[in-house]
From TrEMBL, chains A, B:
This is Unannotated protein. Keywords: Isomerase, tRNA processing. InterPro entries: PsdUridine_synth_cat_dom_sf (IPR020103), PsdUridine_synth_TruA (IPR001406), PsdUridine_synth_TruA_a/b_dom (IPR020097), PsdUridine_synth_TruA_C (IPR020095), TruA/RsuA/RluB/E/F_N (IPR020094). One of its GO terms (biological process) is tRNA pseudouridine synthesis. The keyword Cell division does not apply. Pfam families: PseudoU_synth_1. GO terms for molecular function: pseudouridine synthase activity; RNA binding. It comes from freshwater metagenome. Residues 8-104, 145-247 form the Pseudouridine synthase I TruA alpha/beta domain. PANTHER family: PSEUDOURIDYLATE SYNTHASE, TRNA PSEUDOURIDINE SYNTHASE-LIKE 1.
Length: 266, 266
């Protein structure tokens, strides 16, 4: 039986999603709780967005295969009870439809990155999920740079390379807004992201907002398809996975097949 | 020279505002930073809202008297530098107008209290400033109870008593809204608050929202002017001071005189 689990976490005290011996990770904590409740020796979850250390998720999705029939309503209560002292909260547990794969079935992932560039508007309550910088940023220029990048492209410039894998992705949404309290929020959506891609895209926009790069550099650098020192990868703690979009149930299998073919090393 | 200081803090790791020997308090931390920068032996700040342990502030105001001329722009940079590892951020430092008193000049204080009553909508990033409860709350009933209380009244039922001091206050705003993510937020404004008043008012509304009290009990209990066990004082961590409203500069002195006369023990 395959279960779909929707959940959220504060990434501050985690060494990222992926299980690592001796480290406090989201996957290690979630799989450990599932193994305890289901009395299984090992659980290996698969997740939509493998977040790095310090990165948060308000909407994350994983799947796990279990060797027994499970009552989802009871499992959600047991999980939240066993995880009550952890910064993880389980929103939903459901029986996954046939062919569902948390990693390969999504149509899109959406992230937000929060930046406070106004000394007079800082909120220490949200500091662990907001980047504080001292320069005032020009949001109009940042939006011009962001919009110029939309579409299906090779993102080698904006990625930490993984040998053999494609860096072609479709950037579907990339825009900046200011919240009422002055916080700048980037909304970034793609079918999938390469490693560090959001943090590089945001880093480039911040360089534009500071006047260190021109709007036209966003595309020019991307077309060079090579690593660059023109901007820096921005710190992880401002980043949150806020949505993973799946197709309707009878299309999740076909979508997973398509993504696997496109994205995996040949 | 009297300085007005506007600032914010995350109250999670503080034992409240008021200085206490051996404890990490907001006042102790702020006054210590000021004393270090200004090379003064003692600094004694006065604050608009003396928040309890665990209570936050996004807009708090204090005044301090200093024995030297101070350049506000430089002081704000020095304070934020010395406080960079503390969950305190200084927004503004200005020379206070004649007669200004952070505690007695305000026309109003406004607080917010955040409650998550929806298992499917919890955000672990904001858990330290949001109360999580398992029952679904009826916001319409809570708003009816809140509205029924508005006006100038004796709040003994809703206060932790302080001998000799009046418990008469003007409740100016009390209403509930739901944020986009489902979080319930109470907005509570008064000329001033007695000790624990917001947390008691919110505790009463939550009892109404759960169906444990009737809407009419809000006023009926207040009119009894005595401590009650009909509702509980709600935990501090959901509470944030979000605004302190001062009159225009040439009225701050008269306003302070009026408040002192009204509020102090005879």
């Amino acid at each position: 039986m395959r279960l779909r689990i929707d959940f959220s976490y504060d990434g501050t005290d985690f060494a990222g999603w992926a299980k690592q011996p001796g480290l406090h990770t989201v996957q290690g904590t979630l799989d450990g709780a599932l193994a305890t409740i289901l009395r299984m020796d090992t659980i290996q979850s698969t997740v939509a967005g493998r977040t790095d250390a310090g990165v948060h998720a308000t909407r994350q999705t994983a799947h796990v295969d279990v060797d027994q029939s499970v009552e989802p309503g009871q499992l959600i209560r047991q999980l939240n009870s066993i995880l009550s002292s952890e910064p993880i909260h389980i929103h939903r547990v459901t029986a996954a439809p046939p062919g569902f794969d948390a990693r390969y079935s999504p149509m899109f992932r959406r992230y937000e990155y929060r930046v406070s560039d106004a000394v007079g508007n800082r909120d220490p309550r949200t500091r662990h999920f907001t980047l504080w910088i001292d320069d005032h940023l020009d949001m109009d220029l940042m939006n011009k740079a962001a919009t110029s990048l939309l579409g299906l492209h090779d993102w080698t410039t904006y990625c930490k390379p993984r040998p053999g894998a494609t860096r072609v992705r479709e950037l579907q949404i990339f825009r900046w807004r200011r919240e009422n309290d002055g916080t700048l929020v980037a909304e970034v959506q793609a079918d999938a992201f390469c490693h560090n891609m959001v943090r590089n895209l945001v880093g480039m926009c911040i360089a534009v907002g500071r006047g260190k790069l021109n709007v036209s550099d966003a595309v020019a650098l991307r077309e060079e398809r090579t690593r660059t020192s023109a901007f820096i990868v921005i710190p992880p703690h401002g980043l949150t996975l806020v949505e993973v979009g799946y197709p309707v149930d009878d299309e999740v299998g076909a979508r997973a097949e398509l993504s696997r073919t496109r994205r995996e090393p040949v």
